[in-house]
Each structure stands twice: as structure tokens, then as C-alpha cells.
Specification:
Elements (H helix, E strand, L loop, with lengths): L7 E3 L10 H12 L9 E3 L20 H15 L1 E8 L6 H21 L8 E7 L10 E2 L5 E2 L7 H7 L6 H11 L1 E9 L1
Parallel strand pairs: 1-2, 3-4
Antiparallel strand pairs: 2-7, 3-7, 5-6
Helix pairs in contact: 1-2
Length: about 190
């Protein structure tokens, strides 16, 4: 098997408001169908929505979460990858809390993949990054107000507070925070 040296793959489009799984799976196949992977590659996952549950890291069952996790499980199986499930938060709570919360969220995804999808436990492990790894925008993004986030923008606390303050435009602020809250797969091995 040959491996193409590309550092980021889109598993699927964000699942804003319950986007169709069929379209998501179709995009996954188109974007990664004959792709090959290197150790270290990062694969962005579909948006996984968690309850605001006091820090327990539980899935929002009404938000299509299981469909998203099935897409991830099928992807891991198809490409025979060993992955780290990496979860990130925004910066709205303190760093210690965010690190703990992201770890619980990553573990809950791994537990589901192992128990419900039958993924071998040696193929997935969890890591929470909290707010320690702000997202770097991979392509231009238009915010609800029409303002552009340009490729290469790093969504740090300082950048967000300066450029997208919550009091000026709450919708833009929430969109930027959602971009920072994410789950990614990091390829740590290939079977």
C-alpha cells in the first residue's frame, strides 16, 4: 500500500443541524476513497455534539451522533488505521477543566467505537487536548456576519478576543468557538 503525504483529510462535512449522513458518507468516499495515510496525518471528524452535562462528556443522542460515529468506525476499518481520538474544547472554562472535559469526551468516543462498533481496542486510544491546540483555519471561512476568517488564521484566545469579541457579534463568536471545539483522528499506526 502506498501512502500519500497530505496532512489533513476531511472525513465529512460538519453535521450542522443534522446534515444527511448519506451525503457525509459520500463525501468521505470521494475525499478518501483511494487515499493513503502516513503516521501523523490528521483527519477532521464530523461534528460530534455533546450535551451541556456538567462535564460528563455524554453524547447528544438526538443530534445524529451515532451516525457520525458509524462513519468514523467504517473509516478506521476500511483503511486499517491505528488512531488517536483527539478532542479539543474552546476556552470558555479554565484550562484544567477543559483538559479534563476533552479527555472524557475522547474516551466516550473510544468506548463507543470499541463496545458498539466492534473496533479493536488496540486500534483506538483517546487524548484530550482541552484548549491547548487552537485550530488553524485550513481554508477561508465566512462567518454569519459576512466577515472572513482567512486560511492560516490560528484561533487563539487572544486572536478571538481581539477580532471576534462576543459583545460585538454573538453569532460570529459562537461560530469561531465551534470551530475550536472539534474531534480529530491522528494516525498513529497502520496495520
Amino acid at each position: 500500500m502506498r501512502y500519500r503525504n497530505t496532512k489533513s483529510y476531511a472525513l465529512a462535512a460538519f453535521l450542522f443541524y443534522g446534515c444527511l449522513l448519506q451525503a457525509q458518507a459520500s463525501r468521505l468516499e470521494k475525499s478518501t476513497g483511494d487515499s493513503v495515510f502516513y503516521v501523523g496525518d490528521v483527519i477532521r471528524c464530523p461534528l460530534i455534539i455533546f450535551y451541556l452535562d456538567g462535564g460528563k462528556g455524554c453524547f447528544n443522542r438526538e443530534a445524529g451522533i451515532y451516525d457520525s460515529l458509524k462513519v468514523i468506525a467504517n473509516f478506521i476499518r476500511k483503511h486499517d488505521l491505528v488512531v488517536e481520538v483527539a478532542n479539543h474544547t474552546d476556552y470558555r472554562n479554565d484550562e484544567r477543566y477543559n483538559l479534563k472535559l476533552s479527555g472524557m469526551r475522547a474516551r466516550s468516543i473510544v468506548e463507543y467505537l470499541i463496545k458498539e462498533e466492534g473496533i479493536d481496542s488496540s486500534m483506538v486510544h483517546a487524548k484530550g487536548y482541552g484548549e491547548t491546540a487552537p485550530r488553524i483555519i485550513q481554508k477561508d471561512v465566512t462567518l454569519p456576519s459576512g466577515k472572513m476568517l482567512h486560511k492560516g488564521t490560528r484561533l487563539t484566545r487572544e486572536w478571538i478576543d481581539k477580532n471576534v469579541p462576543r459583545l460585538v457579534n454573538k453569532d460570529d463568536y459562537e461560530t469561531v468557538m465551534q470551530l475550536n471545539r472539534r474531534t480529530e483522528l491522528r494516525v498513529t499506526g497502520i496495520r
